[in-house]
C-alpha cells in the first residue's frame, strides 16, 4: 500500500497562528519545519482510489501538496471522497466541511464519533445542501470482519473514552478514540495509525506486533512538557496523550520492535519540531523515527 503523510502536527499545527513559542518561531524562520495537522491518504498497492485517514482543517492544502492527489483534466470534477476517522476531534474532522464540493463523502467511524458529528457538529444537516454523506460503522478488529475500502481491509482498535471538548457531556464509550489497522491483502502488509494515545493496552501491543509500520501519538516528548512550556496546567497523560519519554512513555514500549515506528501529531511545544534537537538522534538509536509532512511510505 501507499501511505501519503498529509500532516504530522497536533491541534493548531506548527506554527500555530496565536503562538510564538520556540517551535512556532522556528517554523516561521524555517518553512521546512512547518507541519500541518496530522492525517494520511492511503491506497492499495495497485488499485487507484485513495481514502483519507482523518479530514483536517488543512485538507485542501494537503491534497494539493501531493501531486498524486491533485485532480487531473480527465477526471471527475466532483469525486466521491472516502474518509476514515480515528476520533471526532475538530482537528480530525473540520476538513469534512471543506470537502463539500465532493458529489458524496463516504465516512467510516465508530458509533460515538458518528453521534458527535451529527448531533453535536450538525455535519449532516449543514452539508446536506452541498453533498451527500454516506455513513459506515468502522468495525472493531477481532469482533467483526474488516471494512473493505478500495481493496484495503480496515479495522479499529479501541484506544480510549476521551471525547472532544465540544462533546464532553456525551456518554462514555471505549471507542471514542481508536487506532486504525490498515491491511493490504495484495502485499500482506499492515499499517497502524494511532494519533491520540491516552493509555497503552494489551490489544495495542498485539496490533503493533501485527503491523509493519506504526504511525503513533508523538504529541509530547515528556509528561511535564505541557506544564513546563506553559501550554497547559495538566500533564501530557492527563491530556490524553502518553508522552514519548519516561517510565510510562511509548518509547519504552516501541523500541526494538523491528517495526517502522514514526511519531506523528507533534505539538508545537515538542522539542522534536526542531530537526537539530538531540532527541532525534537518541530516538533513532532506539529504532524510532519522526514522520515528516509530504512523505510517502510504501508497504
Ligand atoms: C487532542 O489531540 O488532545 C485534541 O485535539 C485537543 C483538543 O483540540 O481539544
Ligand atoms: Mn489533536
Ligand atoms: Zn507554539
Automatic annotation (TrEMBL):
Keywords assigned: PQQ biosynthesis, Transport
One Pfam match: Lactamase_B_2
Pathway annotation: Cofactor biosynthesis; pyrroloquinoline quinone biosynthesis
Gene3D superfamilies listed in its UniProt record: Ribonuclease Z/Hydroxyacylglutathione hydrolase-like
Residue ranges occupied by any Metallo-beta-lactamase domain in the UniProt entry: 50-265
Keyword Transport attributed: yes
Domain of life: Bacteria
The keyword Transport is assigned to this record: yes
GO biological process: pyrroloquinoline quinone biosynthetic process
NCBIfam families with a match to the protein in the record: PQQ_syn_pqqB
Family per record: Belongs to the PqqB family.
Function: May be involved in the transport of PQQ or its precursor to the periplasm.
Name this protein carries in UniProt: Coenzyme PQQ synthesis protein B
Species for this entry: Streptomyces adustus
Amino acid at each position: 500500500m501507499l501511505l501519503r503523510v498529509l500532516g504530522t502536527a497536533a491541534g493548531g499545527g506548527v506554527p500555530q497562528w496565536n503562538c510564538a513559542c520556540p517551535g512556532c518561531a522556528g517554523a516561521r524562520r524555517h518553512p521546512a519545519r512547518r507541519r500541518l495537522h496530522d492525517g494520511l491518504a492511503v491506497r492499495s498497492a495497485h488499485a487507484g482510489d485513495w481514502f483519507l485517514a482523518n479530514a483536517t482543517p488543512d485538507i485542501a492544502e494537503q491534497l494539493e501538496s501531493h501531486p498524486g492527489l491533485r485532480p487531473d483534466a480527465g477526471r471527475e470534477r466532483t469525486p466521491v471522497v472516502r474518509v476514515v476517522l480515528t476520533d471526532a476531534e475538530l482537528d480530525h474532522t473540520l476538513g469534512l466541511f471543506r470537502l463539500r464540493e465532493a458529489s458524496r463523502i463516504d465516512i467510516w467511524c465508530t458509533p460515538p464519533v458518528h453521534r458527535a458529528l451529527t448531533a453535536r457538529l450538525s455535519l449532516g444537516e449543514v452539508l446536506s445542501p452541498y453533498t451527500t454523506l454516506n455513513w459506515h460503522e468502522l468495525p472493531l478488529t477481532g469482533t467483526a470482519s474488516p471494512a473493505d475500502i478500495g481493496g484495503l481491509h480496515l479495522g479499529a482498535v479501541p484506544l480510549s473514552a476521551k471525547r472532544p471538548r465540544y462533546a464532553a457531556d456525551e456518554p462514555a464509550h471505549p471507542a471514542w478514540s481508536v487506532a486504525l489497522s490498515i491491511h493490504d491483502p495484495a502485499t500482506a502488509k499492515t499499517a497502524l495509525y494511532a494519533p491520540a494515545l491516552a493509555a497503552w493496552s494489551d490489544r495495542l501491543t498485539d496490533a503493533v506486533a501485527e503491523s509493519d509500520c506504526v504511525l503513533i501519538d508523538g504529541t509530547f516528548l515528556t509528561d511535564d512538557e505541557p506544564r513546563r512550556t506553559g501550554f497547559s496546567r495538566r500533564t501530557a497523560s492527563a491530556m490524553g496523550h502518553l508522552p514519548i519519554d519516561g517510565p510510562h512513555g511509548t518509547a519504552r514500549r516501541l523500541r526494538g520492535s523491528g517495526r517502522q515506528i514514526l511519531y506523528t501529531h507533534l505539538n508545537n511545544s515538542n522539542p522534536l519540531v526542531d530537526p537539530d534537537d538531540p532527541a532525534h538522534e537518541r530516538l533513532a538509536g532506539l529504532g524510532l523515527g519522526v514522520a515528516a509532512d509530504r512523505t510517502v511510505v510504501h508497504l
